[in-house]
Design a protein that fits this description.
76% of the residues lie in helices and 0% in strands. It is mostly helical. The radius of gyration is 30 Å and the shape is rod-shaped.
Amino acid sequence: MSSLLWRLRMLSVVGLLEQHELSARRRVEELREEADGIQAELALTELEWNEWAMARSRVGAVLVPENGNVDAKAARDLRDAAGSGEAPNPRGTAAFLYE
């Protein structure tokens, strides 16, 4: 009889372990879904950010002619940033646009 009792206890322990495993698997699935949503939102937000940065650098490149009041290096930096898709540093050569 002790053998039967031991088997019943082991089945109970295995059942509890399966319940914990199922609970953990469900939580992993929930977190993966949440992470997928965050990744998608992050990608869209980065795209929007890059579009605004490119627009700002293009406007800066158009507004600052190479022979204008701003030095030629600053104008070239703005044009280079516009061509590369980078936004110029607002505290650097393009600071005059933000004053």
